[in-house]
Amino acid sequence: MPAAVRFGVNYTPSEGWFHHWLDFDLDAVRADLDSIAALGLDHVRVFPLWPYFQPNRTLIRPRAVEQLVALADAAAERGLDVNVDGLQGHLSSFDFLPAWTRTWHRRNLFTDPEVIEGQAAYLRTLAAALADRPNFLGMTLGNEVNQFSAGPHPDPDRASEAQIDAWLERMLAACEEGAPGRLHLHAEYDATWYQDDMPFTPAQAARQGAVTAVHSWVFNGTAQRHGRTSVPTEHHAAYLVELSKAWSDDPHRPVWLQEVGAPAPLIPPEHAAAFTAATVANALDCPDLWGVTWWCSHDVARDLADFPELEYGLGLLTNDRRPKDTARVLAEAAGRTHVPAAHRTVALVVPDDPAARSRCAPGGPVFDAYFRLAADGARPTTVLDTRADDKDHLAARGITEVVTPEQVLPTPQGGTSS
Description:
- The protein is of the alpha/beta class.
- 34% of the residues lie in helices and 14% in strands.
- α3 (62-77) packs parallel to α4 (113-130) and α11 (272-284) packs parallel to α12.
- It starts with 5 loop residues before the first strand and ends in a 10-residue tail after the last helix.
């Protein structure tokens, strides 16, 4: 019997946002966790800020690590499991990188040997500190660290696909050394699936680490093109879950919808609950879904400056810990018994070549064909062009029909069908 789908939230402290690590208040954390547990959720994803925890390459602050453990223990008291992101990294438009990697000490995050050893020591230390906690799920290497490796970042740390392969292998090994047997993974934003020159690739996302993680944000052109109640907008998270499966070597590899939220003004606050309900329902129709972790727990306080406007209101709960309608929707979903999703039998062909990923992005032919199928009532998944004739692979995934985007989309005016 497949495991039950997990429901959780990305924990954004109500007091001080992630800067709360500078003035750590366990009572405030407990109050936040109480408000999360009251929704019936079962886990939180938490974010140490890397420069606060490792301000020097050879200094990992013991007091900061103790505070992280105290947070995990407080979560356990409330029945909440904990996933810990290590290399923060990037959060809500702000970069948090230690001084020993920037300006006068500028070194590449993914290729410099000393930086890599410092990162590995940090991840291993955090994992080891939590290894004996039953509610510790495991480590995520960092939050969307791929954004540092290519444009549109203003100062990227360029690396090749092979160098990223080696970096991921080293970082995941460090987590395993610290906490053997836990759910250690890496997680990137959707450029991994959509951007042709991104050195973090779909194959890495779907094959390295214990589960595949996807982050779904409809401000990537989806909601702008199609509107808030469209099939592409309401099924975008499900699309990423199913798109990721094309590259997996395991036909039933779990996929974690690790970030998804309702960003205003594309999803106005008065429509956020409906968007949440549709997004969750469609994601639950994906087989092998590990869990849904909403972004985020609490709003950002308005007295904190310079956030993009949409970041202030993404919480399930207000800054004073009152649940919104979105919280009630997620709580209702978490409280229901869910029948495991059936196989998706129709597979759309996607290119194996990472230089052709833009075909899968909003406006691309794979993207458009997938949602044409979904709008017609099909429950599509995806398969690589290099596996489209592999009968054993298709059978293992329950796929009985394979179609190309050209077979799904109308022929352009003046063109001929292929």
